């Protein structure tokens, strides 16, 4: 039997409990798909805080403001989160490298989006794509952290990131999943 389990951001921030009470529940680790959210509060920094309406990186980008400083601060925040999970077995250097590479790639995409936006051809699709790119930073980060810890605990774990960041082909989500399943 295959189970698909969604783990929200607040739960992800209690990673020791997620590992002990969800991943290793009844010593059953096979045939499970874990779908994780960004760690608690990260999406607020990337997009906006739904409760307080405080703007995140996205709002600076959408309003043609400098968003790179806020993105760099977010990177520092994610690296601080990485250090919190050292005791659980996270390879912090690898996780920091992952986030540096992912944010650098996202920045390239976002700068291209800004160029298109300031050209005068405002396209809501560009802004939606920018939101997805930003959201993927938090989601990919938490998935990487969990996968790395579980691998370091001896589990055979494959991280599947459907954001397409390391693939220059324009694939639909269905095509991307099919391609990954054929590996």
CATH topology: Carbamate kinase
Secondary-structure element order, as H and E? EHHEHHHHHH
Number of strands: 2
Number of helices: 8
Q: What can you see in these coordinates?
A:
By secondary structure, this protein is mostly helical. Helices cover 58% and strands 5% of the residues. It has one domain: Carbamate kinase (3-Layer(aba) Sandwich), CATH 3.40.1160. The chain has a two-stranded parallel ribbon with strand order 1-2.
Summarize the structure.
With 183 residues, the protein is mostly helical. It has one domain (3-181): Acetylglutamate kinase-like (Carbamate kinase).
Topology, pairings included?
Layout: E1 3-7, H1 9-12, H2 15-23, E2 32-36, H3 42-46, H4 57-62, H5 68-84, H6 92-118, H7 124-152, H8 173-181
Parallel strand pairs: 1-2
Please tag this protein with its features.
183 residues; mainly alpha; Carbamate kinase; 2 strands; 5% strand
């Amino acid at each position: 039997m295959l189970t698909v389990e969604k783990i929200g951001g607040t739960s992800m921030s209690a990673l020791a409990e997620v590992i002990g009470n969800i991943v290793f529940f009844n010593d059953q680790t096979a045939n499970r798909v874990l779908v994780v959210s960004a760690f608690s509060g990260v999406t607020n920094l990337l997009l906006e805080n739904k409760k307080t309406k405080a703007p995140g990186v996205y709002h600076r980008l959408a309003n043609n403001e400098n968003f790179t400083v806020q993105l760099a601060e977010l990177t520092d925040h994610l690296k601080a989160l990485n250090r919190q999970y050292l005791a659980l077995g996270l390879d912090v250097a690898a996780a920091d490298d992952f986030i540096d590479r992912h944010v650098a790639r996202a920045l390239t995409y976002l700068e291209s989006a800004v160029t298109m936006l300031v050209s005068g051809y405002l396209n809501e699709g560009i802004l939606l794509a920018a939101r997805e790119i930003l959201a993927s930073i938090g989601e990919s980060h938490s998935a990487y952290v969990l996968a790395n810890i579980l691998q370091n605990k001896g589990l055979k774990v494959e991280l599947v990131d459907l954001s397409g960041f390391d693939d220059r082909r324009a694939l639909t989500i269905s095509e991307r999943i099919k391609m990954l399943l054929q590996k």
